Amino acid sequence: MLNQPKKIAFIATVYRHLEAFHLPFIHLLKEKGYEVHAISRPDHGKDGLVREKIPCHDIAFHRNPFHPSNVSALHRLYQLLKQQNYQMVHVHTPVGGILGRLAAWKTTVPSIIYTAHGFHFYKGGKVFNWLFYPIEKYFAKMTDSLITINKEDFNRARCFPVKKQVLYIPGVGMDTSAFQFQNESDIRKEKRIELGFADQDFVLICVAEINKNKNQIQLLRAIESLKDRYPFLKCLIVGEGRGETKLRKKASKLLLEERIKFCGFRRDIPELLISSDVLCLLSKREGLPKAIMEGLAAKKPIIATDIRGNRDLVLHESNGFLVPVNDITSTASSISKLIDDPFLKATMGKKSKELSKNYDLQVILPQMERVYEHSLL
């Protein structure tokens, strides 16, 4: 009994968040001898965690923090934490962050870490979003270490009553080597054949869950405004979500069926990026989007909305363009500039590659390792 490893739990609303963003940190802790569990609502992300031999505990969190089903989810989580006797919990996402901290605090877990992947409230956000401000501030009292991933959130969180420390760590990191191929031209050709794109097509790519916040409709409308001028302009929509059916209907209504390729959830993102020309992410709200970081590593110019998080990654007119939310004209103009000027496209792509080094996993991992060491003393 005395030789059993100490346990740590990662908590998020859905497993796919943990699989997509936190496996390197889970492996880091496992290598140090800890037994690491995952606690989330079941989805396809669970399969990847199970393959990595990570114990998973299913709890039916609802994305809406005010949904009544979260009461029973909190009770189930409380019982689980009490039973497992975790040494530390690292909580993520709004609901996972709130319920996870409350249950951990009530069961006196020794160390509670919360990563805010973009507060719901932000400069220019709706009044409703700011209802989360007093909630986050209140739950900060139950937090030993609060990690923010963009500068706006860090500056705001510094006044929160966190027990120990508020930190700024720029994202969850990525393996930039995964975007380095010796045979890029061959991969580009093969992938375009697979996707049904011609070599001369100018391909935009958007990698994101399909929902209102990710705002793919802005991209579709920009393409619609350019379709007569650029018959070779195409777009790859990577991801799935509740808004997919509606977005497909909108693409059909705009007569873009031959230009838009919906390819759902994919695990070959590096190859898809290599086969594309420009990464577009036109969200209304972001934390520090990994999709853009991957676009940087793939040497792509970026067209993104001028919002928190995106501003940390895209330097306007240096490695891409920042456009206002829902501004179709500015979005279309940015696309046109990159189509019409191959030298500009190449120069911006080179700058993106340079910037990507700041977000490499080998830069982020040591920072998180120090946080964990400090928390597990």
What proportion strand?
15-25%
Mean pLDDT: 96
The secondary-structure class comes to alpha/beta
What is the CATH homology-level superfamily of the largest domain?
Answer: Glycogen Phosphorylase B
Find the CATH topology of the largest domain.
Rossmann fold
CATH class of the largest domain: Alpha Beta
Task: Tell me the number of helical segments per DSSP (H or I, 4 or more residues long).
Answer: 16
Helix content: 40-55%
**Order of strands, widest sheet:** 3-2-1-4-5-6-7
**The CATH architecture of the largest domain:** 3-Layer(aba) Sandwich
Main sheet overview: 7 strands, parallel
CA-atom Rg in angstroms: 21 Å
Termini separation comes to: 21 Å
Quaternary structure annotation:
single chain
Number of separate domains: 2
- Uncertain segments: none
Broad shape: globular
Give me the count of strands.
13
Strand-and-helix sequence, N→C? EHHEHEHEHEHEHEHEHEHEHEHEHEHHH
General description of the model:
- The protein has 377 residues and is α/β, with parallel strands linked by helices.
- It has 2 domains: 183 residues, Rossmann fold; 184 residues, Rossmann fold, CATH 3.40.50.2000.
- The protein is 43% helix and 17% strand.
- The chain has 16 helices and 13 strands.
- The strands form 2 sheets. It has a 7-stranded parallel β-sheet with strand order 3-2-1-4-5-6-7, sandwiched between helices.
- α2 packs across α16, α9 packs across α14 and α12 crosses α15.
- The longest helix is centred in the first third of the chain and has 16 residues.
- The model has no long low-confidence stretch (mean pLDDT 96).
